[in-house]
Each structure stands twice: as C-alpha cells, then as structure tokens.
Amino acid sequence: MPGFRNPIRLIPALFLGAIALGTLLLSLPVATSEGTSAPFLTALFTSTSAVAVTGLIVVDTPTYWSAFGQVTILVLFQVGGFGIMTAATLFGLMAGRGFGLRQRMATQVERSRLESGDAASVLKLVLAITIIVEGLVALVLAARMWIAHEMSPGEAVWHGVFHAVSAFNNAGFSTHSDSVMGYQNDAWILGPIMFAVILTALGFPVMQDIRANGFNWRKWSLHTKITVSGTVALLLFGFVSILVAEWNNPATLGPMAIGAKLLNAAFHSVMPRTAGFNSLDVGGFHDETLMANYLLMFIGGGSAGTAGGIKVTTFFVIFAIVLSEVRGRRDAGIFNRRFGPAVERQALSVAVMAAALILASTTYIASISELALQDILFETVSAFATVGLSTGITADIPPSGQLVIIALMFVGRVGTITVATALALEARDRTYRYPEENVIVG
C-alpha cells in the first residue's frame, strides 16, 4: 500500500491497528468478570481510551473487567504511551538492525521533532526512563499499599504496578472504582503518582536536554526553557486556583485539614495537565474550578511525551505572538529568541483545529442529550486533551456521542496536524505565489 509508506500516514494507521487489536481482546468473554462478551462499543471505547492514554471509561474498570481484561488495558496504555512506532524502532534496535531514514522520520513524527541526538540514543533514553521510573514508582506504591493500607503483598504489587504504569503514561486508569480518592491523606501514594506524571508530561526531548546539559539554564534549548518554565507556571496557577476556589467547598477540600488541602490541591493542579487520576470528586467542583480545568486540560503538557492537549510550547508561542502584536513588534519570541513563521503557523493551526473540534463535538452531544453543557464541554476537552477526568457523565452519553468521544481521543493522541496531513494528498510546492493584498482585521 503505497500511501502508508509515508510515515505521517503510518502513525495513525499503527494506532488504529492497536485500537482494533485491543477491541478484539476486550470483546472476548475471558476479558470480563462475568465471562460474557463485552458490547462492541464498550470494548472499542475502552481500547481507544487505553491506547490514547486518556482514562475515560464507560464501565468500572476493577469490577467489569477480569484480570485478563485489566492486564490487556495495562498493555494497551503502555503501548500507547510509549508509541507504536517508537516501540517498533526499539525492537529493531534490540535485534541489531540499523535505522533507515524512513524509521527515523517515523519516530520523529510520533515524538514530535526529536532534534537533538541520534534516534537510537533517544530511544535508549526512552526505554531507560520507562523502566527506571515505572519500577521505582511501582516499588514505592506497592510498599505503601502493603504497609499502610492492609493489602496482601500480591495485591499491593498488582495495584502498585498498574498505577505506576498508568501514571507514567499519563493514562489515568485505576484499579479502584473511585480512582485514588481513598488515598486523599496519603502523600506516599499521591506524591509518586504526581512525580511520574510531571516527569513524562515534560516530554522526552526535555529529558534528553537535561541529561546532556544538566540544570544549566544557559545551555538549554528554547524548547526546554519554554516547557519547563511554562510547566512551573501552569502548576502554580492550577494549585492556587483550586486551593482558593475549593477551600470551603464541602464536596471537595472543605472537610479536610490544611495539610490535606494543600496536598490535594497540588495533586489536582497536576492531573488536568493530562493524567486523569482524581483524589477529589470532580463532579463537586465549583464552576470557577471547572473553568481553570478547561484551560489546563486544553493546554496539556510538553511535546513529544505522553501528555495531551495542544502542548505548553504551542500555548506560549501563541501568547508570544499576541504579546508582540500588542507591543507593535515585528517578531514574536521569548527568552531572547524569535520564532520562525512556520512555527507560528503550526501553533495557530493546532490551537484553531483543536478548538473547532471541541466546539463541534460539544454542540453535537448537547443536541442529542439532556446533559448539562458545562459537563459536556468538560468531557470533550478531557477527551481531546487525553486527560481522562470526568464529571461522571461518560456512561450517560448516547452511543453516537460516545463515538464522537472516541474520535476525539484518537485525534487528540495522534495529533491534529498529523491526522490532517495523513488525510491530505502528498504536499506539492507551488511554483508561483499570488499577489499580496491586505484585509481589515478586527
């Protein structure tokens, strides 16, 4: 199939293949706790949510799915987070095969412009970080669950591993029906989960830059500077906004001691960035908290990692463009560097396409259901940004609306630009340009 030789088209095809395989496995009777075949839409929704590392669910993970089903889900979000093409390239490296140009290009498409270093060294870093971080977080979680939460060693290991892999891949799936609400007062559970989410939400190019240059700000690339500083700013914004808005809310932070309030506000400033775990009842949030979550989810995390959203760099490129226009400056940039026209166009395209998809999806679901508009908007933003947080309406959305959520999760994971390019014809440069003429704006 000549069309799939193009790596930009190959990536969506591989993700679709993983979703199809996951749907097939989850449709088997052995995958459910009752031993009956799951409905096709339920299996498809769960498989897409896992491969897209989202975490939205239409059935309760620990009660509906059997051990086989839960392991299948774990494998799916590990594969989805790690990247289909990244895994394939890694297997080629382990088998001693070299990297051809097409494989390098495909890896770069999936991980979004891994410019520094050879693909092989990048993939070695990805594999090393995956093994080390997931292993350490699983060890801490399992030990804590065994010692402090009265689980048997085997049970603690299972829950610890599942949550560690889910957190590292920003998947948001949990083996508990209430996510991590049972650990509201346990920093030894919430802390490691936050660490894994923040680390992988930075993106692997940032990790590689820090590995090469340490914490020397001057040697960092512009991408790393924007991602790290932007992440810190957004985490602080989320923490303060949630703490202030929910401080006296009896459904969330209200009944808690000050220490627990600070811990859970910090936890929920991290989760909307694309993780999807919740230690508080999201359905009980005040409207202003939901508004803050809309913004945090839409922006997401860093590029070329397991995070979703339009990405931190995209948001700050657009912010810099607006700021330069307000100041009457010709060039847009930050940290004494200017952006090229191609980067500016790509950032604007990603944001506009994302907003259009969310708006259209929200409008459609609102037209076929009686659900509250703010809850539908929260659901669609969460799906597109592959976050997984929900106000609790996922299972109540009509079947056609759930298909829309499935499409949003897929597009959000693969990327709006990648999908648009995959569906387009081969790019051809024009040998001419039209005359320039300006229009009145605003």
UniProtKB/TrEMBL annotation:
Membrane association type: Multi-pass membrane protein
Membrane-spanning residues: 6-28, 40-59, 71-95, 122-147, 187-206, 226-245, 294-326, 347-368, 403-425
Cell location: Cell membrane
Coiled-coil residues: none
Pfam family, one: TrkH
GO molecular function, one term: monoatomic cation transmembrane transporter activity
InterPro entries: Cat_transpt
Primary site of residence: membrane
GO cellular component annotations of the record: plasma membrane
Keywords, in A-Z order: Cell membrane, Ion transport, Membrane, Transmembrane, Transmembrane helix, Transport
GO biological process, one term: metal ion transport
Name this polypeptide is given: TrkH family potassium uptake protein
